[in-house]
Design a protein that fits this description.
Helix content is about 25%, strand content about 20%. With about 60 residues, the protein is of the alpha+beta class. The longest helix has 9 residues.
Amino acid sequence: MKKAYVDKDLCISCGLCEQICPQVFKLGDEKADVVEGADCEGQDCCKEAEESCPTAAIKVE
């Protein structure tokens, strides 16, 4: 199982991750967050969101 993580200290709330992969990422009150129970296994959009994040706040492991 691949999991996504958002570093809240690096996140600038640009919303790009949510646009790219809304089934995994959502914009919370202040920062982006991972949808509860979301799995990145087999979802190319997770890697795309990680690579597109302007502050490298997203990690997929």
